[in-house]
Give the backbone structure.
Amino acid sequence: MMMFREATPSSTPAPSASVSLARFDDEPVLVDEERCRIETINEVGAVVWQCLDGESTLEEIAVDLADVYGADPATVLDDVVGLVTQLSAMQLVDRDAIEPLAPGVAVLDQEGAVIPTAGTDPFADPKYLGVPPSS
């Protein structure tokens, strides 16, 4: 079983080779051809997705997005890191650029329930698939 990984400001993730951004009923979705699944993502998440190039750090991406949207850089960084951690857990980004999650760190599922991480990938279970709505 794969180790769950957590994004950091210095992470430089890229989309997994089998995943692409598309639109369905005018809503952004991530299409994972390898796993034959479609994951929903909100508009801001789609913008972040398009910035993941494997070279830019999440901190650089957050600074750029904060400037474009006139938002607080620290808040944007927290949101970007959180989103990429979720995308990593769902195996939608290249996990080699993401750090392993420390044992005992709480991760929440779509309903807000705590998922024990204990050195495994809790999102390998199909009931955890899907990007939780942003707050």
